[in-house]
Structure formats: structure tokens, C-alpha cells
Amino acid sequence: MKRYNLLAGLIFGTAFVFSSCNDEFLERYPLDRITNQTFWNTENDLRVYNNSLYDLARNDDNVPILHAHFNGFDSHWGSVWFQDEFADNMAPRHARHTFFQQVRSGKHTTPTDPQQFGYKGWNFVRAINVGLANYDKAAVSQAIKDRYIGEARLFRGWFYAEKVQKFGDVPFVEKELNVDSPELYAARTPREEAMNKVLEDLNFASTKLPDSWGDGNAPGRLNRWCALLVKSRVCLFEGTWRKYHGGANATMWLEEAAKSAKELMDKGPYRLYSTGNPKTDYNAFHRVLNLAGNPEVMYWRRYQLGVFTNHVQSYFEYAGGATKSLVEDYLCTDGLPITLSPLYKGDAKIEDVFENRDPRLRQTVLHPEDAAFYKYHLADGRPYPRIQGMEGGYLSTTGYHIIKHYNADDMIGKAFDTAESPAIILRFAEALLNYAEAQAELGKITQADLDASINKLRARVAMPNLELGKVPVDPRYTADGVSPLIAEIRRERRVELFMEGFRYNDLKRWKQGKKLLIPTMGIRWDAAAIARYPKATVQTIVDPVSGQTYIDVYKGTDWANPVFDENKHYLWPIPLNTLAQNPEIKQNPGW
Predict the structure, then answer these.
(1) Contacts of 400 (CB under 8 A, 6+ apart)
(2) What pTM was estimated for this model as a whole?
(3) Is a pLDDT exceeding 70 seen at residue 20?
């Protein structure tokens, strides 16, 4: 992706230079640089300007919406793959992932400056608003202008939705500001008012963007189908947030989520990737370097040697491993949870965990027999799993090494920051999950709805259908306050979208922060494990449910004894410097 920040800077910098004057000479435009008065003429001008928005959005820390991977050293924390570390899917203990551990345990504090993925990126909004003030100057048809207006408004709505999800009220700005603008010293826009504006932006984008830019999924630009998926995601978050936290018009937001997802499902050109092999199809396309032409991948970021690269594969160990909580959510092959299925073999040894289970488990977590197949840790030939304290190889905090996304060929023989693992940003499977959940939350889901959504995901991995008349009642979720059907749809979402950056936001919008209080556990730890994993150094806990002993990942660390304040921790704190600059912003409750 080319850089266009220079162009944007020139336009921003010259926007205020020229004022009305009667002297014809002084009104002449400079010939040696781009100016705001001479730039906005052709479709190519609009396209080039919007390229600068994509370039700004490539900074995933400032603008975490097209979230992919940072390049270089920052690949260790900036990847979308590591966002699940904020929740209960992954168990990092590396010092470089301290912020994830702090948030997950409720031990984060009010920062002086904006935190990672936090209260920043406002230059992105300014760039968008500059464009929106000028697109109409171009001598092209309104339909062409609307394409680029829609692109910019998709970015703005998506950006603000992400900020609302973290901070609640936000300073929603719809015009270019200068140093004297009163908006710089105003209070934040109330959440529900801001989200109404977000919906206006997303509605415009999902009707005015083209179905295709003719880029052949290169990757290129966000199209109308992408806008529909983003809209369904944002509306599902807002609808469930208002349903469980309180707020107006929850039903409207859920209906918009369902409608957007269904339009994409019925009319869009995308479908689930499948070769007919349930043992490999789920993770196969997460482990390749080139996703062009994949029917499921709607938008992705490509990395290419000599252009833009990353080092994310080499930092897999920092993620710690998958949690016992995640692993236990995979159904057995009879479609029942492990609490109900006679097929469950238990977890006395790690191999038993994979027996008679949803094939996605073995395509997500490393089975000991698959280490050679995946060339695990640069094909080092060591037995896995390997637990912290053991000598050599990749080490895990839980014993459940993550294999989804792993690609040894993107590391073997490559120097630092020359890796090319892509990042899937939008994929069709999410639309199926969004639709099923929205319909279930509305209380209007049918078997046909399940067959068009959840059961397509299950069919890819040869799992039994979810049937309305036979929904299992997992005792682990009866205290969640939702129907068994909604619990099953949430389970499906956790399994399908693992390590794609959804779990933390899902727990927040469902008002299930209490799940972050559950101790983070790994594999069974008994005499057999001690013998099998020599020199491992672990702390243990007795699971109150089973009475068995397991690895306790955070025992003895600062992240033991997690806290979650229902009146505080669903939102992040506003940085102190922001409050000092504008006291009207005001701090979020409890911080």
C-alpha cells in the first residue's frame, strides 16, 4: 500500500493560506505545490486523497479498525491476533504484554497519555472531515463523488463506534476544526447521540459504495459489502449493549444488525471457504501468505517483502497459550458440550482433550502429534507441549499451544521483520454469526435462520446442526441469564472467531465481565504431567467444578486475584493529559 501522507499534509497545510484579496497577483496559486484550491478536480484526485485515509488507518494503535499487524518490533503487541489477550481466551505472561494482563485482571489504572489502542487517532477524523468538505468540488458525477464520500463516512462511523465501545461518550466532530474552534473545548457527545451519527455514516456508506471497485480482492478498497458487515458488527454491539446495560432503541439496533448481515448473506458474492476437508478447512486459509481470490475473505492486509512486512509469527510465544476455558467450549462430535456428552474423554492427558471434539479445536490448539506437520517452532523436532521452565523450544503458559494462524514457513530462513503473514480484517463467517445472534436476541430466530448461518459454519467442519427443538442446556452457562440458544450461539462465536479480536468486546456488550474473574487455567497438572514435562515451573489450582488440579497461570503474579467492577470496568479511563487540556471531557465513572 503506497504512502500518501505527504499529499494529505500538503492539502491540510495549504487549506487556510489563501484568503480573499483584490490584488489579482496575490490571488494566483503557486505552481510548485498542491493546494486546496487546485487539487479537487477529478475522480483520481478523490481516489488519491482517500488513499491517504487508508494509510493513516494502517497505524493500528491510533486507528484500530482495519486492525492487522504492526511491522518490526511492534509486531509483538500490535497485532489483531493478540487482542483476545484482553479477555479469557489467551494467557500471556510476557512482560511486553503487560497492558493486556493489566486490563484482563482489572488492574489497569488511569494513564497520563493515551493507552495502547486508546483515546487517540483524532488526526484521522480531521483528515476525513477535510475530505468531506471538498469532495463536491470535483467535476464528476454525484454517483462518483458518493463513492468516495461513502468511503470516508465508513471510516468515520467505524472509528467513532470503536471509540464509543471503549470510552462511552465521545467528541463527535463533523467538520474541519482550527485552533479557535469551540469544539476543542466542548464536552463529549453523549453516547446515544454519537451512535445515531455513526449509524447515519454507516447507512450512507452501505448504500453509496460500489459493490466492487474492480480490484479483484487484491486487497484494495472497502466495498459496499464490507460496509454492510461493519454496520452489522457495530449495530450488534450497540443493540446488545443497550439490551444488557440499558439504553434506548435496543430493538432497532438489533434489527439493523440482522438486516445488514442478511443483505450481505443473500446478495453478496462471498461464501465460506471449503474444499470438503473438515480436518483442515477451518485453519488452512488462516495460514497462507496470499488470500487473493479467497471467497470468504472480504478485506485483508497484505504484507510483501520489500514493501511492507511484519515479524508477528516470531512472537507467538508471547501470547502464552489458549486457556482451559476456551478449550472446554468446543463441543463433542455429537453436538453436545463436554458437560453432557458421553463422548468426552476428559483431560487426564492432553491427547484425550482432542478426542471426539469439534475439528476446529485441533485446528486451533496444537495436538502433540501435529508438531511435525506444522513444523512447530521452526521444525525443531522437540516434543510439544512445552511448559514454562522447560529447556528449549516454544514455551506455553497453559500447555495449549496455539496453532491457528501459525506458519513456520514465514519464519524459517527469514531475517528480522521480513515476514509476510497477512491479516484477515473482514470475513464472511462473521456475518453469519452476527445474523444468528441478532435474530436470537430479537426473539425471532427460526430453524431456517440457523440453517443459513450457524449450521453452515458447523457443516464446514462436519459438526451436527444446531436444532431449535434440541438445544442443549450446558450447566456452565445457566447462570448467564440468557436462553440456552443464545448461549450456544455465543459459544459458536467464541470458537469460530478465536484469536480474531472479538472476545473482549463480546464480553463487554453481553455484560459478562464476571467471566474475567474466573482463574486462568491450563492443562491438568498431576504426577503424570510432572513426569511428562520435566523442569516445568508452574503454580496450580484445584478446579472447584471437577476437583482436579490444573496449571494456574497467574498465581503468584500481579495478575492473580482479578477484579471486575461492574460500575467501572466496561469502559476505559480518559487519559489525564486529555482532562488537563479540556476539563469538560470529564472522567468515566469509577476512574
Answers:
(1) 321, 322, 323, 324, 326, 327, 350, 365, 366, 385, 522, 523
(2) 0.93
(3) no
